[in-house]
Amino acid sequence: MIAARPQPAQGHFRTPLMETPFHPRLAALAETNDWYGWAGMKSLHSVYDEELEYFAIRSTAALFDISPMAKYRVRGPGSEAMLNRLTLRDVRKLAPGRVHYTAWCDDEGHVLDDGTLFRLAPDDFRLCCQGRHLPWLLDTAEGFDCTVTDETDEVAGLALQGPCSFAVLAAAGFTGAETLKPFQLRDFPHEGGRVTISRTGFTGDLGYELFVAADAALTLWDRLWSAGQPLRLKAIGYNALNRARIEAGFIVAGADFTPADQAIRTDRVRMPDEIGLDWMVDLTKSAFTGRRAIAAARAKGTLKHILVGLDIADNTPAEGAIVYHRGKREAGVVSAAIWSPTLKRNIAIASLDRPYGSRLTDDLWVEIYALRELRYAKLMKPARIVPRPFLTLPRRSATPPGRF
Amino acid sequence: MTSCDAIVIGGGHNGLTAATVLAKAGRRVMLFEAGALGGTMATVEVAPGYRSSALSHLVNRLAPEVVAATGLEMTCLAAPPAPTVVLGDGDPVILRGGYGARLEGVGAEEALAFASLRAKLMGQAAILGRMLGHRPPMPGDFGLGDAWHLGLTGLAVLRKGRAEARDLMRMILTNVADVADEYLTDDRLKGLLSFDATLGAHLGPRSPGSLLGLHYRLTGSAGGVAGGQIVPRGGMGTLAAAFVSAAERAGVELRPGTRVARIEAVQGRATAVTLAGGEVVSAPVIVSAIHPGTTFLRLVDPAEIDTGLTRAFRRHRSKGNVAKLNLALNHIPAFGGLAEADLAGRIVIARSTDHVESAFNPAKYGAFSPDPAIEVVLPSLGQPEMAAKGCTLSALIQFAPYDLKEGWAGGAPRLLDTVLDILDRHAPGLRAGVIAADLLPPTEIEARCGLPGGHWHHGEMTPDQLLFNRPVHAAAGYATPLDGLFLASAGSHPGGGISGLPGLNAARHVLEVAR
Asked: Which of the residues B96, B104, B116, B500 has an alpha carbon 20 to 30 A from that of B193?
């Protein structure tokens, strides 16, 4: 009835781990050699020292390679309508030159992924996310006057985060960056081409994300790196970023929720309302995939889970801990936890089974298993539900940004 | 903007049934049909003075409850069950009564074996048939009514004894070839069962699940005779006219020649249809009795439905396997040298299981067999109004795959030639007497009837597309993910054939949920 669609040829399977466009620079800097595979690309857990890298984010400036993020380009007159079918938020409200954080679901209303949607021009969008979704995007685009392309390999990405990040941009000659407001983006000239800079990030700090053609990646790195050295710009790995994102209360697909297309067990999927994304769901806009299921779950009260921030007594990170109500009834699990160096608090993101976390919010405990020299110390510690983000920094949203 | 209580899209027998039942319940109903009322059920002129049924040519499963609910006028079906003649090698076999209640042309032992198989299959069909007349049980939305129906079905199974229940479970998903071999030795009878089980499906007799097609056929009845068949007087168009006049009597506003261009929806609710001329008609209930794939991939804005639903309909298997041939002949062909009275039903050219299986094999690879199996009806026998002189012949050719590799432009004349050769072999002189021929491969059926894939049943009738998965799971049980939009074509439960049940069940569901 409908002709088969040509599948784009991809050669990624020939190399078990691909190198990102910034690899030569990262390899030269990597002291810990703590490589791991992120979406099939060589990435660093840490570059030289996880602690110091974290403090680069919060005290000076940090450079993090986000090239492995999946990046999809949606172009054409029908792209706004297509993305409105795909995502939970109303794309009509996203002005050109702006970015918003959004998510998308399958027909059952279970979250497939979250990501950032960049409106580069009225009919030109970039969608950045953790997972690979090209078949889903192509199927969603059927019947819309738009094209969807995977530009993950063609576009390199850098996150420049931290209080001095604007100062680094300014020193690198990106004039005009001071007028960028949070979630705003603009193109800047670079080496005869251009770099798209948005005031976005995953740290809850002042910061920017830069997207550039892969062949201009190294010159962009060098431009930032040389300008940033007097400002203590550091290259960082994922572990430092992960701490910052937990403080900022951000969730990670595959860690804090299992994307619906990856869940093996049918009861492990999550609706937006179950991972703290209920605010995104716009039932007043046009229809979107999962709308019916989400509205029905709300009406019938069949939501099963809830994602909460926890403030836990004691200083042992509660990574993977089980959450209990009244110390005995199991109420959920901690999906991310750190001792926050900035807040000096033991914080965690937990997935609870309603009514725990929704109706029953008191008397929660976490059981932390701390492995101490071949013996587990079982710590039962009281936990309090607190709003996310745990950490709010005024410098994140001040315009013009500070130079510090 | 015009408005009414319910809009029905599609004026085939299911659309007409749904519209009539809704109108009889007091709803103001408008029915839009792109072509002529009756849909694929029509009588056409093959050549001046020679008339035949456009597509289907027999009535063998028109449901009594549909007749009762619509008040259908049945004079065109007032006839005893017509015989089936099987032409294989050697002498023909003739089945009379309801699917061979009486056999001619086989030995006494084989007749007994057939009677025992017939009784077995009829008994099983009677149980399975209980599932057809109401909404299929929907997992996750299982009501008291479902429990009642399933309970009654379970009781019916148990009443026949444990051995019969076990046999039903053993046989239900098996293939017709094995079951035929289990009981029969006569190749002509095996060929007939193989043909009937796979007619219209992309299955060979040895394909798993092919027996279900035969079960489905035997759930039908005609003139109160289970497994019976009737050649309607005046062709299928007369029956279509009866459906139309029932709808008219019920007060349905019928709008033939009016194509629906779009189904309008807002935030998950279907609200109106826009006609090809631009007119917008709104209604709280829209019943689509056209192909479900057309409904969801062509009429509904993709922005209004979920991506997974689009995916499901892209995967929906609905490519036709049968070509239709209408011939105008200058004489009455003497198939098998039989008397006219014996030829007044259907004539099946199926020598054996292997014959049907071999006819299917090339279909898997986008070709048709040089030796297809064929069902022939002579609609003009005993009906001079269908052919003043000579005769008309209506044939179904199995298998004719929709995706013919060589393309149907070149393939159709070749297939016609092949079929005429075969017919001529069984009725010498037939070929020389052809006045006009009209061969409709699935692509032509698609074009003439607006039926994507040219699939008679609006979708394969295999277990993956039956019951709560018909046409696709999210749109099964007549209600769809778009509130206010219901499906009522053969693409919905219970499926194809001139039964009217999808339309009746859908209308009853509408009346239940949209009071």
From this structure: B500
Q: Which option is the CATH number for A12-69+153-248: 3.40.50.620, 3.30.360.10, 3.30.1360.120, 3.90.1150.10?
A: 3.30.1360.120
For residue A336, what are the contacts with CB-CB under 8 A and spacing of at least 6? A242, A246, A251, A252, A255, A256, A319, A348, A349
Q: Which of B291, B307, B318 to mutate to test the interface with A (most CBs of A within 10 A)?
A: B307
Instruction: Specify the pLDDT at position B205.
Output: 98
Query: How do residues B304-339 score in pLDDT, each as one tens digit?
Result: 999 999 999 999 999 999 999 999 999 999 999 999
Is B77 among the domain residues? no
Domain with CATH 3.30.1360.120 in chain A: 12-69+153-248
Q: 10 Å Cβ neighbour count for B337?
A: 11
Cβ-defined contact of B314 to A86 (cutoff 8 Å):
no
* Number of separate domains in chain B: 1
Stretch A282-309: mean pLDDT: 96
Q: Residue B407's CB: how many other CB atoms inside 10 A?
A: 12
Please give the ipTM for the structure prediction. 0.90
| Mean pLDDT, range B184-213, rounded to an integer | 97
DSSP string covering B383-442, please?
-GGGBSSSEEEEEEEE---SS-TT-HHHHHHHHHHHHHHHHHHHSTTTGGGEEEEEEE-H
Query: Is the CB of B308 less than 8 angstroms away from the CB of A289?
Result: yes
CB A172 within 8 A of CB A394: no
Q: How far apart are CA B311 and CA A180, in angstroms?
A: 40
Residue A308 in contact with residue A357, Cβ under 8 Å?
Answer: yes
Mean pLDDT, residues B218-243? 96
> Does A266-386 carry CATH code 3.40.50.11060?
no
Report the residue of chain B nearest A283, measured CA to CA. B267
Euclidean distance between CA atoms B241 and B501, whole angstroms: 18
pLDDT of residue B140: 82
- Cβ pair B310:A106 closer than 8 A: no
Q: How far is A252 from chain B (nearest CA, A)?
A: 24
Measured distance CA(B80)–CA(B97) in Å, rounded? 8
pLDDT digits (tens, 9 = 90+) for A22-53: 999 999 999 999 999 999 999 999 999 999 99
Q: Which domain holds residue B509?
A: 2-41+65-70+236-317+457-513
Find the CATH number of the domain harbouring B286.
Answer: 3.50.50.60
Confidence of residue B388 (pLDDT cuts 50, 70, 90): confident
Q: Examine the pLDDT at A2 and tell me if it is beyond 60.
A: no
Dihedral pair phi/psi, residue A348, rounded to 5°: -155, 155
What pLDDT does A4 receive?
63
Contact at CB, A2 and B302, closer than 8 angstroms: no
Q: Most B CBs within 10 Å: which of A2, A292, A298, A300, as the mutation test of the B interface? A: A292
Res A7 pLDDT > 70:
no
**A128-160 b/e with 16+ CB inside 10 Å = b?**
bbbbbbbebbbbbbbbbebebebebbebbbbbb
3-state secondary structure of A242: helix
B77-123: per-residue pLDDT in tens?
A: 999 999 999 999 889 999 999 999 999 999 999 999 999 999 999 99
Q: What is the mean pLDDT of residues A278-295?
A: 96
Q: Closest partner residue to A2 among B265, B308, B314, by Cβ? A: B314
The answer, for B304 touching chain A at a CB cutoff of 8 Å, is: yes
Q: How many CB pairs under 8 A join A and B?
A: 66
Strands B102-104, B93-96: pairing is antiparallel
- Token pair of A251 as six digits: 């969730």
Residue position matching structure tokens 């690309």: A41
**Cα B299 from Cα B245, distance rounded (Å):** 28
Residue A3 has pLDDT above 80, yes or no: no
Q: How far apart are CA A95 and CA A211, in angstroms?
A: 19
Instruction: Search chain B and give the residue with CA nearest A144.
Output: B302
